[in-house]
Request: fold
Amino acid sequence: MSRNDIFALVSRVRGATNEYLVGELERLGATGLAPSHGDILAALYRHGELGMTELASSIRRRKNTLTVLAAKLEDLGYVSRRADPEDARRSLVFLTAKGEALRDPFSRISRSLMTRGLKGIGEEELDATSRCLERMLKNFSG
Reply:
């Protein structure tokens, strides 16, 4: 594979990762979830209830994109939203009991993904790859 194929390779890795995640979630009976929902769940597992602006910033998504993703998670019963009691203009997102019940399986799937995806790759290779990908992303971020 040549350096000209790097973006195609990154895309294929992302596709394989997404396919793995969806398959594992479906195996657990968590249908309807997309890998992009995982960012929201992970942030809520880490931080607890968050405002939409903080959540969007935490997962590096635009607020309008987050609104669509959060609405889908709400429809599926994993999160709920309510007005902030201190500022009615602000919307808070929090996990429901169904969302909390997914915490441990979500963590196991994440560990399994890392183990499988990084198998046979040394620390130096991982560090160099991370630095390279971060630089590439920065090139597009401005």
